[in-house]
Write a structure and sequence with these properties.
This protein is α/β, with parallel strands linked by helices. The protein has a domain of about 120 residues: abc- transporter (atp binding component) like domain (Coagulation Factor XIII, Chain A, domain 1, Distorted Sandwich), CATH 2.70.50.60. The protein is about 25% helix and about 35% strand. It is built from 8 helices and 20 strands. The strands form 5 sheets. A 6-stranded mixed beta sheet has the order 5-6-7-3-8-9, with helices on both faces. The longest helix has 16 residues.
Length: about 400
């Protein structure tokens, strides 16, 4: 363990053995214990994970469901032992996972506070001294003499969270506890996080909320498919986590596009393509190609496109007539491909392309295809607006 580390994880792996032999009796269960060829599936929950957390650091662990992050947190808490590797912890650690373990549903809320406090190492007098603060934080004053089995699951977690935060710990493990309670209670939780940062507590924070990761975490890691795939600043890791979902979204999957079309069919849009599914900040230009096919002879049809965002807001569009480009005469069976390019000033998110072909100077629609294709724009600069043009800022003392 590094001398300056609060937690050191070195080459940690965790495997689970899942038996597939069916036991229907005590006898078959005993026999299976002595079988050398029992059917076992080995699940690799974590593979060769290494990182260090410094004292006073707010450290994030992010990853998709099933990636292994909760298994990692339970190894840090001592609930699981690693199959390989080592875990070193320097200081008293309190896990905010499995909140409410030890609660008795037949006891009242008040009795469970004293029970849970004892499990955390507090004496009855210490719990009594902090009882008012616990109940006030949980906002459960009216319910403390009711049995816990009459509480909602959210109320139980709020009570458990309120007890747990009273523990004097050097290191806290927090696993997605902010999903409980109303907006006011969640605001209290965030204020508590701010106080942890202010007092330089070491916090390991697992969350799917990238805005919380960006706001609170100093550094973070990304776990994907049981492996540590990235480590860096909170902004960098939040961006890479978001990209996991963006890049797997199909750009031209008809199952995810709400395609509708109308027109007389004289010319049809065969396909709309983009060179890739995701455009990042480094992509200065976005281009798309539109392939059309004539089903009758037409003179100088007009092809166009428009772009809308995921909220169905129409952002911009144009056509060959506006751009003063002519397609000329097209005979039945012939094809044309029109390529459009525009600066990448779109805001972060998914966007859709509508494609049109008209003739008779735009009076008659040959084909109008909504959501002919989709693409994603990924940007770290996020605003409430639909576009993000380059904007310079100058500040003077005058």
């Amino acid at each position: 363990m590094h001398a300056t580390s609060a937690i050191s994880i070195q080459k940690v792996s965790k495997d689970f053995r899942l038996p597939h032999d069916k036991q229907s009796s005590v006898k078959s269960t005993l026999v299976s214990l002595f079988r050398s060829h029992s059917r076992l599936e080995h699940q690799h929950a974590l593979h060769d994970i290494s990182f260090d957390i410094k004292p006073g650091e707010f450290f994030g662990i992010v990853g998709r469901n099933g990636s292994g992050k909760s298994t990692l947190l339970k190894i840090l808490a001592g609930i699981y032992q690693p199959s390989k590797g080592s875990v070193s912890v320097n200081g008293k650690l309190v896990p905010f996972i499995e909140l409410g373990v030890g609660f008795n549903p037949e006891l009242t809320g008040r009795e469970n506070v004293f029970l849970n406090g004892a499990l955390l190492g507090f004496s009855p007098k210490e719990v009594q001294n902090m009882y008012h603060d616990i109940v006030a934080f949980a906002e459960l004053e009216r319910f403390m003499d009711q049995k816990l089995k009459n509480y909602s699951s959210g109320m139980q977690v709020r009570l458990a969270f309120s007890v747990a935060i009273m523990a004097e710990a050097d290191i806290l493990l927090i696993d997605e506890v902010l999903a409980v309670g109303d907006a006011d209670f969640q605001r209290k939780c965030f204020d508590y996080f701010k106080s942890l940062k202010k007092h330089k507590k070491t916090v390991v924070f697992v969350s799917h909320d990238m805005s919380a990761v960006r706001e609170y975490c100093d550094r973070a890691i990304l776990i994907n498919e049981s492996r540590l795939v990235a480590e860096g600043s909170a902004d960098e890791i939040a961006e890479q986590y978001t990209r996991l979902f963006v890049e797997e979204e199909p750009g031209e999957d008809n199952h995810t596009l709400d395609q509708k079309r109308w027109g007389d069919g004289a010319i049809t849009v065969e396909k709309v393509q983009l060179p890739k599914k995701v455009f990042n900040e480094s992509d200065e230009t976005i281009s798309l190609s539109m392939s059309i096919k004539a089903h009758k002879d037409l003179d100088n049809p007009i092809a166009g496109f428009s772009v809308k965002d995921a909220a169905d807001n129409l952002l911009f569009g144009t056509n060959t007539k506006i751009k003063k480009h002519k397609l000329g005469a097209i005979k039945k069976g012939e094809r044309r491909t029109i390529t459009w390019s525009f600066p990448n000033i779109l805001a972060d998110g998914r966007h859709f392309v509508n494609a049109t072909v008209e003739y008779e100077d735009g009076i008659t629609v040959c084909d109008w295809l909504t959501e002919a294709a989709s693409f994603n724009v990924h940007k770290t600069e996020r605003t409430a607006y639909h576009i993000t043009p380059p904007i310079d800022v100058t500040i003077t003392d005058k």
